[in-house]
Amino acid sequence: MKKELIKNSILGLVLGDALGVPVEFKSRDELDRNPVKDMIGYGTYNQPPGTWSDDSSMALVTMESLTNGYNPVEIMKSFCRWAHDGYMTPYGKTFDIGNTTSKACRTYKHYKDITTCGETSEFSNGNGSLMRILPVSICYANDSEKAIIEKSFEISALTHNHIRSKIACALYSLIVSELLKGKNLYEALANANRIISSHIPEEEKIHFKRITDFEVVQLNRSEVKSSGYVIDTLEASLWCLFKSSDYKEAVLKAINLGIDTDTTGAVTGGLAGIMFGLESVSSKWIKSLAKLDNIETLIKNFIERLQ
Question: pTM for the full model?
Fold first, then answer.
């Protein structure tokens, strides 16, 4: 794998997250009137420009853990350290955490069992595992299809253990694998859909239909949802990527859909970094990222582990 693609992907996730943080929960109508065009600050969480949220924190602790080898127990411990102690946060304090992730961390802290801490309810299909799966996607991109799916399922299940969330993570990982092999997005999604199809239970197929049937490509903006629901996030991210020609266009399109702006930005940004690179991004955006030196060191160590 090319080092630059990996770096662009991880930085793309963090940038997308940070761009979306100040306007999280704003409606599409609000953002249509006053769209995000640049890296801004304060807003929803009153944080300085370049502040990233739980999306990046959980992705970065996953990446750090994977640098020392694949150990889901250690990854879960890192999630708890982030949730409870503010580890791997921009300023030493966790300011945003999803309900499903929070509950999973509490359950693990009490029972110390990674097989039972993840939520299994259909109503626990937020995007909290999709937003952080990218390091796993990259780490196992050259492995077998079976390994990519199994690892994605297992790491999603630490917090989000319903089959729908696990399939979404595996589908994303398969797309990452195909993009890193030089496929364009159409080819990557077609191959990922083919590979994942036998792993989708019959009753779940309806939820992925707009993706597996390529309907997402033809959607009008009004038909694209951008809530915290995992399917909405995956669809929105793919739609933005299909409708864009560079990184900046893709992530700003994602964020200006409104509502769960940081996660839609992060999920889109991870793929956009591979597809387009970061040439369209102002160096000011990158330099504004909180703890940039730390992030770049983590990425460097991760890339060395993959060689």
Answer: 0.98
